[in-house]
């Protein structure tokens, strides 16, 4: 039958932050973590949708310990404010789930191409700022949600913000490749520092979420698996025993649907030189340095 939400270990005493947790994959991840005892922070851009998600989650899991906190990954000032306002001195789990997909060209508050800025740079900054709390929690994990669509495009190190030429799907694929390169380099740096924090990645396959529009919505109705099923690879990366650094999980059936397991990834997402260069560029663009791993 494969790994299911019933296999999630007891999360009592653990604190998790899930970005984009007001709907879709993020909401299902937050709900299952809370159902298994974790205190979960729903980090969302919209206060209205975030608070509504908290109310819905408590209605489904009356014992849930959940809270909403404002986080807009398109604005690094709010990323810093989120971290400053987050209570507690340790964090057991960070799920970098929030994202945007195939948008027309636009820029974030800080001037980054929106998909690269939200999907990668915002999470790069958030993880760096939360890293001291993760290092203080034995067995902590960072999980970034990528996509099987990373395979359509490698990053262009000379044009990270797609200023010379923009295609909405290529930009999306590049941002999802960036997610995997980030985890690859973060896992390497954590190992080098002797830390037991695990950095892993996952993707939901083809899941019915609110990221899709137009013809993809028709595809959702016909062939997509549910958002709850799409959340399982993320939950596996976040909670299953034996997860190793730089692992990548997705649905077992052609990386499309089914129970979670190890997933194929494009070879360029394991390129050490590319990962290190992206890391250096991300530090420069965001102004965030991972000094705790220095």
TrEMBL record:
Q: Which domain of life is it from?
A: Bacteria
InterPro entries reported for this sequence: NAD(P)-bd_dom_sf (IPR036291), SDR_fam (IPR002347)
Q: Supply the SUPFAM superfamilies for this chain.
A: NAD(P)-binding Rossmann-fold domains (SSF51735)
Coiled-coil-forming residues are none
Keywords tagged on the record: Oxidoreductase
Q: Describe the family membership recorded for this protein in Swiss-Prot or TrEMBL.
A: Belongs to the short-chain dehydrogenases/reductases (SDR) family.
In Swiss-Prot or TrEMBL terms, this protein is called Oxidoreductase
Organism of origin is Streptantibioticus rubrisoli
């Amino acid at each position: 039958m494969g790994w299911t939400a019933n296999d999630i270990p007891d999360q009592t005493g653990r604190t998790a932050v899930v970005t984009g947790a007001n709907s879709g994959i993020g909401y299902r991840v937050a709900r299952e973590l809370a159902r298994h005892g974790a205190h979960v922070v729903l980090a969302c851009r919209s206060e209205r949708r975030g608070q509504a998600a908290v109310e819905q989650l408590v209605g489904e899991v009356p014992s849930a310990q959940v809270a909403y906190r404002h986080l807009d990954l398109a604005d690094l000032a709010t990323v810093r404010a989120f971290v400053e306002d987050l209570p507690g001195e340790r964090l057991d789990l960070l799920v970098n789930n929030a994202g945007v997909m195939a948008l027309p060209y636009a820029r974030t508050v800080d001037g980054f191409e929106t998909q690269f800025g939200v999907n990668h740079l915002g999470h790069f900054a958030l993880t760096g700022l939360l890293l001291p709390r993760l290092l203080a929690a034995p067995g902590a994990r960072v999980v970034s949600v990528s996509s099987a669509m990373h395979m359509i495009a490698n990053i262009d190190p000379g044009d990270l913000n797609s200023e010379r030429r923009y295609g909405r799907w290529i930009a999306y694929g590049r941002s999802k490749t960036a997610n995997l390169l980030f985890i690859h380099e973060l896992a390497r740096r954590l190992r080098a520092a002797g830390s037991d924090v695990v950095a892993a990645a996952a993707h939901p396959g083809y899941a019915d979420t609110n990221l899709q529009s137009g013809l993809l919505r028709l595809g959702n109705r016909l062939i997509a698996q549910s958002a709850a099923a799409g959340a399982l690879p993320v939950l596996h990366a976040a909670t299953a025993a034996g997860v190793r650094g730089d692992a990548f999980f997705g649905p077992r059936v052609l990386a499309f649907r089914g129970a979670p397991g190890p997933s194929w990834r494009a070879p360029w997402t394991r390129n050490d030189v590319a990962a290190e260069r992206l890391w250096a560029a991300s530090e420069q663009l965001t102004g965030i340095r991972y000094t705790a791993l220095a």
